[in-house]
Fold this sequence. Notes:
It comes from Flavobacterium erciyesense. It is built from three helices and five strands, in the order E-H-E-E-E-E-H-H. By secondary structure, the protein is of the alpha/beta class. It has a five-stranded mixed β-sheet, covered by helices on one side. It is globular and about 50 Å long. The protein binds arginine, zinc ion (ZN) and calcium ion (CA). Arginine binds next to strand 4 and helix 2.
Amino acid sequence: VNGKIEIPVVVNVLYRTAAENIxxxxxxxxxxxxxxxxNALNSDFNSVPAEFSGVKANVGITFVLQNVVRKSTRTTSFxxxxxxxxxxxxxxxxxPSTVLNMWSCNLGGGILGYAQFPGGSSATDGVVMDNNAFGxxxxxxxxxxxxxxxxxxxxHWMNLRHIWGDANCGSDLVSDTPTHDSANYGVPAAGHRxxxxxxxxxxxxxxxxxTDDRGMFMFSNGQKARMSALFVSGGARASFGI
Length: 242
Ligand code: ARG
Ligand code: ZN
Ligand code: CA
């Protein structure tokens, strides 16, 4: 409406143990990270290498915590089959056409989180994070303790692909991100190059790679354009009414 992209957020907390019933402080710490990372206010933004200083983006999207819904469960660990999003086995989303729904639960199989791309069923729309990778305090566990799992998942929710395009030298459909060999893990050494055409420097510090939380701290202008396009008239998330 005023040109500012402001996303209302509902956090759905599923817990079997008391620890999984994460605190409001932990939830707020995650919202704070999203507001920093999507507004170039993260303290590591100035660690972006000079080679990428021309493309590092202030995305300009803010997140406002609207409500927290809590529910106990007998489920020991959830998978990526969306059971946490169903009223019978979890918590159904709150008005997904105007609210970003996030779920915190115990995800099995070492999964940190997963997201639904724009254009999917509204009944399952949103992002899911393991409670150990949610926010920066409470039950959060290193090296995924800086809230970057949600930054990455919200990137997917806003139509971003993995930077390596989920294929060897694949495409993420963004022109200002270099072609990567494949996913990067841990924290790669400075100057790491791709062996793809042109052997570009890899942008492994991008949120859409797979590094540790402390290794990722930027979106690119091309990624910003892809995200912003969703919220204008005719975009897949235009119902957010921006
Ligand atoms: N594996 C997950 C995904 O593809 C999330 C990876 C998040 N990485 C992180 N450092 N927190 O959606
Ligand atoms: Zn991903
Ligand atoms: Ca690219």
